[in-house]
User: Fold these one by one.
Assistant:
Number 1:
Amino acid sequence: MRHAGHFLRLVALVAVAVVGFLFVRSQVVPKDFGVTGHFRLSAIADEGKREARHIGSDACAECHDDIGKSWKTGKHHTPQCENCHGPGLMHTKVVAEESTTAYPDKILKLKNAIKRPTGIQECKWCHLRTFERPSTLKSIANVEAHVSEHKGTFTKDTKCIDCHNPHTTLVTFDAKGLPVKPKIAP
Amino acid sequence: MHHFITEGYVLPNQQHIYWTVMIVLYPYITGIVAGAFIISSLHHVFDKDELKPVSRFAMVMAFAFLLFATLPLLNHLGHPERALNIMFTPNLTSAMAGFGFIYSTYLFILAVEIWLVYRVDIVHLYNETRFPALKPVYWLLALGVLDISEEAKVVDHKVMVFLASIGIPAACGLHGYVGFIFGAIKANPWWASPLMPVIFLLSAIVSGVAMVMICYIIIQWFNGREVDGACVSALIETAWYFLIIDVALELLELINHAYMANEDWTILKTLVTTKLFVSMFIIQILLGSVVPFLAMGAVVVFKQRIPAAVRNVIGVVCGLLLLAQVAAMRWNVVMGGQMFSKSLRGFLNFEVDLGGREGLFAGLFILCLPFVVIFVFSRLLPLWGAVDTFPKAWMKEKPPVRQPLKGFSKFSS
Amino acid sequence: MISPHTPDDVSRRAFLETVAKTGGQSFLFGSLFVNTAMLRLPQDVASPKAKSETEVGKGVVYGFVVDTTKCIGCGSCVRACRAENGVPDGYNRTWVEQYTFYPDGEVVVNSPNGGENGFAEPPTRNMPAELEKVQPVRGFFVPKLCNHCIDTPCIQVCPVGASFKTPEGVVLVDHERCVGCAYCVQACPFGSRYLNPETNTADKCTWCHHRITKGLLPACVVSCPAEARIFGNVSDPESKISRILATNRVQVLKSYLGTRPRTRYIGLDSEVI
C-alpha cells in the first residue's frame, strides 16, 4: 500500500462526509419520527390542532332559541344553519369576547362575523330544478314563472324570502290570497 | 400554477399541471449523463478504441450534466429547503426515495473515475503551471498527494477498472430508475408500463451519444482541428444501434396500448392524435427517428464510401435530431400524462410558460450550465487528450512529454 | 367473507371464528338479527400485514359511505369543506359530479367549480350544442372525496414519509416535512390530492381530522341536507355506518387498481370513473 496514499485521503474524505451526514441527520430528524410508522408521530396531533369552524346548529340555537325552535320543528330542518349562514366560529368568538365595545357596535360586529344570506341564491342551490335531482325534492324550473303563477310580480330584487320563511319554508297569505312578507328574524 | 382551460370533464384538482418543464428537463439531463458515460465506458472498459478521442470528453460531459441533474428538481419542489428529507427520512416504499442515494453514489463513482483519469495530469500541472494562483487548486484536486510513480499508476488502473465496472450498472440503474418513477404510477395509464424504464434508458443513451457527437464535431471545427473519421463513424454507429432498439420499444408501447384497447385507450387515442400529434408523430417519430435512422444508416452501411465532410454534417444534423427526438419523448411522457384527466373524460389545453421560475427560459438556462462547467474544466485540465495537447500558453516553456505506460495506454493518455 | 384481497385461509378462519361466536344468535334470530361483523367488507377484514389497523372491534376504524341515490347536488358539502378547511380556490377536497345520460348513449359529466355554486343554472353546463334540445334519459349526482385507501398509492410513493395513515385509518399529510414534489398528486388515481399554493405542500381531504378527533362529524357530513354522506366507526357494529354497510350493496371507485378504498358508494354507475 505504499503508493495508495491518495486513496487513503479519498477514503478519509468519504468517511468524513458519511459521518457528517449521519451527524446532521441525527440532529435534524424529529425525535418522534418513525415511532409507530414511517412518519412524524406528532403530525397527527398537529392536524388535530385546528379549530372546528362549523359549530353546529345546536350551538346556534343556544342563543337564537326562537329561530332554532321553529327551524327544528319545521319542514326545513335538514339544511343546517351554517349551510346558508356560513361557519359560525368567528361569530361565537365575538360573543365570547370581553369587549368594551358599546352595545350597538357589538351587534354590528356580530353581524359582520356571520354571512348574511342573499335570500335567493341559497334557495336555488337545492330548489332550482335540474334533471339529475331526485323527483322527491320540491323544486321549480323558473323563479319568474313561479312568482307569476302565485300572482306576484317578479323584479330583479325579488327574493324567495319575500314570501317564504327560510327557516320553516312556510308562506302566510293575507285576506286577498296574496303572500305576506314573513318575519324571519325576531 | 396555472388554471388551464379544459375540454370535457376534468377532475377539479387536475386543472393544473403539477409537473412542469422542469420535470421534462430532469430525465433529459440524467439521460445525457447516462449516454455520455456509456460512450466513455465503451472505450475504457470495452476497448472500443475508435472512441478514444472523445472518451475523456464524454466522461467530463457526464460529470458536468450530472452536477446539474438535481437543479430542475430543486427548482420544482414546493419546499427546496427540505430537499434533504429525501435522504434523512427516505420512505423505502417510494420509487422516488432512492433518488438521493442512487444519485450521490453515481456522482461519487463518476467523480473518482474522472479524478483517476486526470490525476497524473493534475500533478504535472501542479508542478508546471505558469499561474502560481492555480497551484493550490491543483494541490487540492490531487488531494495533496503528488505520487505519480509507475506503482501508483498501477493502483490507479486497478481501481479504475473496478469503478468502471460498477459505473455501468450504476448509470443504467440511475436512468432506468428515472423511467421507473413514471412507469410505476398505476394511476396514470399513459405512464404505467414496465417498458418505461427500458425506454428511458435507451433514449438516454441515444441522447448522450448525440450530445457527445455534436459537441465533438463542432468543437473540432471551431478550433480548426481535424475531426477523427473513425471516431465519428463509431459514434454514429452506436447512436444508430441504440436508436433502433429505442424506437422499436417506443412504438411497441404505443401499439400495445392501441391493441389492448383498455378503458383508457379512448382518451389516449385522442391524446396522441390531437394534443401530442406534432410532438409525437412529427418530431419524435418522423424527424427524430425515421430521418436519422436513414441518414445514419447510410453511414453505417456505406462506411468509407461516404465522404468525411458529409459524414460530419450527418453527425451534427442527426445528433440535433436525436436530441429533439429524446426531448420530445420526455415531453410526451411527462406532459402528455398530465394533459388528460384521470376522469378519462377531459383534457387540459396546456400552454408552456416562457418566463417564470419553472418556465421554458429557466429550463434552457439550466441546460446551458453544464457547458459552463465543461468550459471552466477545459481551462483547468485538458479536455481531449493528454497534457501535451493542452493550450501551451498555460504551461511553462516546455510541456512534459510522457511515455505511455505499456499496456495501460488508454488510461494514461 | 371470502375476498380477493385476503388469503383464503385467513378469511376462512375468521369466518369460522365469527360463526362460532355468533352462531347462537344467528341461528335464533336468523332473519331478524343482522350481525354486521359477518357482513364486513374486504376492506375491513384484517389482513395479516395490516392487522392492527383493520381489526374489527379493536379501536376505532373510520369509514365513509356516499349514498349517491340521495345526493341532490346542492353543493353544500363543497362549500362547507372550503370554509372549514380553507381550501384555496381552484382546488377541492371534495366535489360533486353531475352525470347526465342522453338517448344516443352520450354521457355528459359536469362539475363546475367542483359543484360549489350548485348545478342548475347556466352557464355551468359543459355540453355539446346538439344535445341542448334533447331530453336526457337519466341522471344523478356523485359526491367525491379522498377514499382513504388501505393500500394507498399516495403514501407508498411519498419519498420523505410526509404522507401517513393514522391508527384509525385516516390518510394525512405532514405539512412540516412535505417537500412539495407532487409525486403523491400524480399517484392518486382519484384526483383527491393537490399541491396547496399557499403552503406549497401536498394537501387533501382529512375526513376533517380536527373535527372527528373532537367528537364532531366532518363538515361535509354535517352540512349534507340529504343524508347522502355517512361517516362513522366501522368497528362498532352499532354505529350508523355499520348498519348501512350491513344492509346495502356498496362499491368503491376504481376497484381494479387494488387500492382498497375506505370510502364506499351506494348506487354507483358503471359510467362513474
Number 2:
Amino acid sequence: MDVTIFMQQMINGFSLGSMYALIAIGYTMVYGVLRLINFAHGDIMMVGGFLGYFGIAVLGLPFAAAVLLAVVGSALLGMASDRIAYRPLRSAPKISLLITAIGISFFLENSFNVFFGGVPRAFPVPPYMEKMVEVSGLMMPVSAILVPVVTVILLVIILWVLFKTKYGMAIRALAFDVDTVNLMGIDANRIITLVFGMGSALAAVGGIFWAVNYPSVEPMMGVLVGLKAFAAAVVGGIGSVGGAVIGGLIIGFTEVVVVAFFPELGGYKDAFAFVFLILILLFKPTGILGLDFEKSRF
Amino acid sequence: MNIAIKKDQWINLAIIAVVLWFIWFASSHFDEYTIRILNNIAIFIILAASYNLINGVTGQFSLEPNGFVAIGAYVTALLLVTPEAKLYQYAIVDPYPFVMTLHANFVTALLLAGTFSALLALCLSFPVFRVRGDYLAIVTLGFGFIIKILAINNPEVTNGSLGLNDIPEFSNLYWTGGIAIIAVIVVLNIVNSKFGRAMKAVRDDEDAATAMGVNTFKAKTLAFCTSAFFEGVGGGLLAALLTSISPDLFDFFFTFQLLIIIVLGGLGSTTGAIIGTVLVIGGSEWMRFLDEPMKFLSYETTAMPGMRMVVFSLILIFIMLFAREGIMGKRELKDLFKSKKKGDK
C-alpha cells in the first residue's frame, strides 16, 4: 500500500472525526445535565451551516464573520429551544422530553425544507480554504488541517470552562444532582441554558466545517450526522467530553478507512456508527473511557 | 363480579359486531377513495395500537416502526409477487435464485412478515435493554436507517431503490379491518394481563418494579417484540394495499406520524391510539391543502415534504407542553363509562 495514500486517508479520517467530535460534545454535555438525548442537536448543526451560507452568500460577509454569525445564531437557537420547549418539562416524565426533542428536530428540518427548499445549496467556500498545501510530501486542502486544529483549540477552551471556572463547576455539579445545586443558590435553569448554548455553538462550528468539506447545505444534512455523533458520544462514554472526542475520531476514522480500502463496502458506510453503538452497548455500556455515569461526570 | 365481567364481554362483542357491520357496509357502499382512507386507518390502528404498547404502556421511548414496517412490507412483497412479475422487475442486477422461488399465500406471508420482525426485535433488545432504556430511541432510529441502507444496497433481493412493484392487491377492508380488530384485542389482553401490569410498573418506576421482583428485561422485550410483530404484519398489509414499495416509503416520517397519533390519543391508551389514528389520518387528508404537491396520504412521496409536517411537529410540541395527557390520558373506553356512572351517583 502506498504510504502517501495511507497518510492522506488518515488525515481525512482525522478531519471527519473532528467534525463528529464537535457535534458529539454537545450531545454528551446535554445528556450530562439533563439525561436527555437532544434529537434536535443535529438540526442545530444544520442551522449553523445554513447561517454560515446566508452570511456569506446573502449578506456578503467575510468567512470569519459568517462563522461568528452562525455560532451566535445557533447558540441563541439552542438556548431558545431549551427555554421554550425543555424547561417547562423539567419535572415531567422523561419520555415527554424525548418526544418534544423529536418534535423540535422535525420542526427545524421541515420548516427549513419548506422555506428554503430541499435542494442542496452550494456553499461558497472561501478560496484560501480550498488551496492545496504540501506538508512533507502530502497534498491536502487547508480545510483538512484547519478542522482538527480548531477542534483541539475548542476542546481546550471547553475543558478550561468545565474545570477552571465557576460556571464549569456548576455544570459538573448539575450533572450530579439538580436539586442540591438549586439549594446551593445556583440557578440551575440558567446553567442548563448555558450548556445548551455551548453545545449549540460547537455544533454550529461543526456544521460550517461540514458545509466547507462537502461544499453544500441542505435541511436534512443534520439527521445522519447527528445520529452518528450521538453514537460517537456513547462509544466514547456518554457524559465525558474527552470520550465524545475519542468516539468521534474512532467513527470518523472507520468510515474513511473502510471506504478507502474496501470500496465494495462504501454503500454501508452510514451503518458503521450504529454497529459500533450496538457493540459497545453489548460489551461495555459505559463506553471506552469507562465512565460509570452514576459516579463520575465529564 | 361475575355478572359485571359478562356485561363487559357483551359490550365488547357488540362493539366488534358494529365494527364488522361497518366494514361490510363500507366496502359495499362507499366509493374507492373513502375505502382507501379507511384501509389506511385500519392499518394505522394496527401500527398505533402496537407502537403504543412499547411507548405508552411500557414507557420506553422507541422509534422503531418504520424499520419493522419496511421489513414486513419487503418480506410480504417478496413472498407475494409472482415469479413472472419478478422476472422483468429486477432491472439493476439479476436476483438471487432463492428470491425467484419464494412464494406463499397471503396469510402465511403476513405471519412470516410479523415473525421475522419480532425475531429481529428480539435480537435488538439484548444490546438495548441491557442498559437503561435511554438508548432504545437512538438504536431504533439507527435501525430504521440501516434497514433503508440494506434495502438500497442489496438489489439482488430488494431491487434497490427501484423497489418492488406489481404486488398482488390482496388487502381489502375485511383483511385490514379484521386484523386491526385482532391486533386491538391482543394488545388489550396483554395490557390487562400479568405482563401488562409488569409493563406499566416499568413505566411508572423501574427501580420499584425491579425491587418488587418484576423482570423488567422480560417485560420490555415482550412489549418490543409484540410491537414489532404487528408492525411487520401492518407493513405486509400496506405492501399488499399499495402494490408497490420502495425504500423511500419507510423513512422517519412514517414513525413520526405514528408518534403524533399515540401522543394525541394519549400515551398508554389503546382507545386513544384508535381515536388518534382517525384524527391524524383523517386530518392529514383534510390538511392536504397545506402542501398541494403531496400525493395520496403523505407517505407515498418524500420528494416534497411540506407545510403539513411543520404543522404536525408544532402540534406535537404543543401537546407535550400544554396537554401532555392527550385526549384519553391513560384511560380506556370502559373507564370513561365507569367514571360517568360514579358521577351520576
